[in-house]
Amino acid sequence: MRVTIWGSRGSIASAGPETVRYGGNTACVQVSDGQGPVLLLDAGTGLRRAGVALEATEGAIHVLLTHLHMDHIQGLGFFPPLFQPGRELHLWGPPSTTLDLRGRLTRYLSPPLFPVRLRDVPSNVELHDVPAGGWLIGQLTIRAATIVHPGPTVGYRVERNGTSLAYLPDHEPALGGLAGLLDGEPTDEAEWTSGYDLAAGADLLLHDAQYTTDEYEERVGWGHSSVRHAVAFADLAGVRRVALFHHDPDHDDEALDRLMAEARSLARTAEVVPGCEDAVLEVD
Ligand SMILES: [Zn+2]
Ligand SMILES: [Zn+2]
């Protein structure tokens, strides 16, 4: 599988000369196996660039949303394939007990927030709640599971021919069992940690690394990880490589260089790679 990062930022786009290396667009990642339908994880502002690259292609496109915070859906209205007549588009997202996926997405894709209603676009859009078990998209096996983050939020695991990718861009495992493990409390088993099943043994994990350790202390419960927590989670789950991702909009390139160096010094077994916009990572 080939993983292309079209957007690596968290919370809000942060374009500017201070973010050119790590990128300013919000979360969007493409997974390709060179054969089947196009798979995109999240629809942040990076989705616009993915869509420009996909405009000349044919076939179905699947967009898998982890949750509906704006930094994960804002690119939808600016995704060129949405406006291609007859293009087959599938939007997958976490179920909610209060409003279905269409109802939640059309809060954004309708006036006054957006000029075009989702029901009026010329592409063939189908919406799906992610199923409880795994499912297939082409040759890719997909699994979704609820993880710790405000509101209904899932992470994803994508597998093909024994290789695996885990995608948990917004995740606070410290509140899901990890903090107890880091403090040496024997009460929490690794398997009970939020996100563990999705990430266990993955060849590549894209994980939330929004905060420094000090910033996290001020933001407990906001749904994100410190770099320390991201690396500890990667080691706990036994992943081969972790791409640190969903960078805080206030972290410029130099700050992120320092955080990557800190992450490498903390990692015990996982290889740390920077989750930069435009990075292409091979998973094999
Ligand atoms: Zn986010
Ligand atoms: Zn979020």
The unreliable regions are none
| Ends apart, CA distance between termini | 7 Å
Query: Mean pLDDT, as a whole number?
Result: 95
Shape: globular
The main sheet comes to: 7 strands, mixed
Order of helix and strand elements from N to C terminus: EEEHEEHEEEEEHHEHHEHEE
**Count of runs of 4 or more consecutive helical residues:** 7
Bound molecules: zinc ion
Structural class: alpha/beta
Main sheet: which strands, in order across? 6-5-4-3-2-1-14
Number of strands: 14
Which key terms come to mind for this protein?
284 residues; 7-stranded mixed sheet; single chain; alpha/beta; binds zinc ion
Write the layout of secondary structure elements.
Blueprint: E1 2-7, E2 28-32, E3 38-41, H1 46-54, E4 61-64, E5 88-93, H2 101-105, E6 124-129, E7 135-137, E8 140-146, E9 154-160, E10 163-168, H3 178-182, H4 196-199, E11 204-208, H5 213-218, H6 227-237, E12 241-245, H7 253-266, E13 271-274, E14 280-282
Parallel strand pairs: 3-4, 4-5, 5-6, 10-11, 11-12, 12-13
Antiparallel strand pairs: 1-2, 1-14, 2-3, 7-8, 8-9, 9-10
Helix pairs in contact: 6-7
What does this structure look like?
The chain has seven helices and 14 strands. It is of the alpha/beta class and 284 residues long. A hairpin with a 2-residue loop joins strand 9 and strand 10 (163-168). The radius of gyration is 18 Å and the shape is globular. It starts with a strand and ends with a strand. Strands 6-5-4-3-2-1-14 form a seven-stranded mixed β-sheet. Strands 7-8-9-10-11-12-13 form a seven-stranded mixed β-sheet. One zinc ion (ZN) binds at residues 67, 69, 149, 170, 223.
